Structures are given as structure tokens and as C-alpha cells.
Amino acid sequence: MSRDNRSPEVLAVAILFFVLTWVAVCVRFYVRAGLTRTWGYDDSYMVAALCTFTVYLVCQIVAAVHGAGRHQAYLSHSDTRTALLFLYLCELGYAVTNCLVKFAIGSLYRRVAVKRWHIWSIWVLMVTTFVCSLVHSFQVMLQCAPISVFWNQQPVSPKCMDKGLTLGVRYTLASANAMTDWALGLLAVCMLWHVEMERRTRIFVAGILAFATIGCASTIMRMCYMHTIVNGNDFLYATTDIGIWSTVEPGIGIIAGSIATSQPLIRRLICCRESVQALRQDSLPQYHLTKATHSPSNSHSYQPSLALSDLGPMELNFITSHIPGLGSVDAESKLESSRDVAEDMELPCTKHEPMMQQGPPKLELRKSFRNSFNGGSLASSFAKVCIPQ
To answer: Which CATH number does the domain housing residue 156 bear?
Structure first.
């Protein structure tokens, strides 16, 4: 890719964060509105931030299509005018989006803050963010008089604000923005420092904070390219890096703030996965490794485990074997040796009793009459009735 045309870089970053932010906020909407039903002000601020960020990305994409990221010498006057107009709208969209993202994160902290100094710190940071965003918006709108000079002529002209004053205001606002970003990150660490959490939850929170530090670093990276905004001769190409970092900063804030609320969904997915694995293990038959008869083709075989009720009576053929030098070995010695082998293989050695044949009961009248006469009960009663005394 030629360095003289950086429009594809601007387009790639804009499209990437468009997809990621919409996915993250949709997951947040599902968790808060459908899963836990705990919709709050932080969710409303985040949805509003997504809307303004989407407008910002659309303006940036249009500006890149018409020449943002390219040298103005290779562009027509109409393309230059269109690109400058949409970059002007991007500056306003950045200020508003950044304010709404900070409001969403601050409102999320207020839902879990307990200590008084935590709550006061959140309010101070939110008010500071609002003031900085308001000043930034007015500075963008009033930097040229009339406003159309910004895109009809060039952003740096005698009819626009002085270069030194412009850089001073922008560096001040960017410094305050970076301070609020890092303050929010450190405040989250202080609020969660003494909270007892599971190991999985602690890793999840640490990952979110680590990801949020990238957004804080992007604020500092944006300040490194702040001097390019006074390059009026080649404004579209010179401000490519600051435009990219202006996309990364609020984009990471939206993603990190939305992922922080997705833990109930992640916990449910983990439980569902464990349940499916348990069901699969229960449905599979249990097999044990048993020793089979040695054959040239297979020395071991897998046989399904059987219950004791599936085993029939074992018939032992008492065969006497004669071993030279040891005498005769009868069936009892073989049975003892088989029990020793069973103990070595850790198999329970059970004593099987012959099973009774099931069928209709037999009326053994002959035996019952015989017992009755032998016992004297039936004979004595018959004698009393039939033989008179």
C-alpha cells in the first residue's frame, strides 16, 4: 500500500469499529433488557453513544472515499470540499461521543459505588468530561467565521482561529480527556480492590481493565499527532493519524463498557456447555478393559460392563489335572487360583448361587398329606369325626 494514499487505512479502522461496537452494544442490550431486566441510565447513555459514534463513522467513511488520507494536490476541488466538510462533522461527533461514553461508564460505576468518596469522584469526573466536551464543540464550531470557511477554503486561513490558540485549546482539552480516562480506570481498581470475587470473575475484570487501558493509551497517542491540525496546505493527508486514533479511543470505550455488563451471559453459556458435556458423558456406555483370550490378531478386547443380575449361574466342571512333579490339581485349587487372578485384576469375586427356574407353582399334594399324617394333625381329626369313641 502506498503511503501517499492512506484512505484504505481510515476505511479499515472505521469499518472494524463499526462492526465491533454494534456487536458489543447489542450483547449489552440483550443482557440488560432481556436476560437480567436491569436497564439503567448507563445503558441509555451507551446506546446514545453508539448512535453518535455511528454518525461519526459514516462521516469518516464518506470523507475517506472523497480523499481523506490522500494529498490534496491529487484531489479535485469538489472532493476536497466534501472531505473537509465531513471531517468537520467528525470533530463534532468525536466530542459528543466521547462525552456520552464517559457518562455511560460513570453511571455504571455509580450503580456499584458504596463509599462516599467514590461517588463524589464519579460526579467530578463526569462534570469535567461534560465541560471539556462542551468547550471542544464550541471551539470546533467557532474556529472559523463564517463556519463554511473551514471546507470552502481551508481549515487554516486568516478567517480562522490563530494556530497557537488552536493548539493551546486542543492540547488542554486532550490533557483533561486523558486525565479523566486514567482516573476512571484507577477508580475502578480502587472500587474492586477489596471485593471478594471468584478467580474466573477476577480474570474477567482484569481483562476488561487491561483492554480499557488501550483506550487510555489511544488518548495519549492522539495527542502526539495534535500538531497536524494546523497544517492547512495538506490537511486531509496530515490529519490521517489523528483521525484514526480519534476512532480508536471512543470505540474501545464503547466495547469495554459493554463487555463489562456481559458476565451473566458468559456465565449462562458456561453452564450450558457443562450441562451438555455432562449429558454426553451420561449417554455414552461405560467400557472396562478386560483380558481376553490370547489370539494372534487381538490380545485385548473391550467388553461392556454387566450387572450382577445379567450373570447366570456358573457351572464348574470338576476336572482333575495331573501335573508331573506336583501331583493332582482338582477343581477347588483351580477355583482358588481364579479368585487370586480376579483379585489381581481388581474384579469383585462373587459367589453365584444357582437360579431357581421360574414357572407355575407345583401342587405337591402327596408330600403335604404325608406331612399331615406324620404330624398327627389330620389323622387325629379324621379319627375323631369318623370313629366313635
So the answer is: 1.20.1070
Q: Decide if 43 contacts 27 (C-beta within 8 A).
A: no
- pLDDT digit string (tens) for 159-184? 888 888 889 999 999 999 999 988 88
Q: Is residue 255 part of a domain?
A: yes
Helices 240-259, 199-224: axis angle to 10 degrees equals 160
CA distances from 134 to 56, 93, 96, 138, 204 (A): 17, 12, 8, 6, 34
Which is higher by pLDDT, 263 or 389?
Answer: 263
Q: Name the residue with cell 490370547.
A: 294
**Coil vs helix vs strand at 144:** strand
Name the phi and psi angles at 300, rounded to 5.
-135, 150
- The three grid cell numbers given for residue 301, joined into one nine-digit string: 478386547
For the whole model, what pTM was predicted? 0.69
The number of distinct structural domains making up the chain is 1
β-partners of residue 46 are none
- 209 is in which domain, residue-wise? 7-267
Cα dist from 231 to 81, 248, 259, whole Å: 16, 22, 38
* Domain contains 329: no
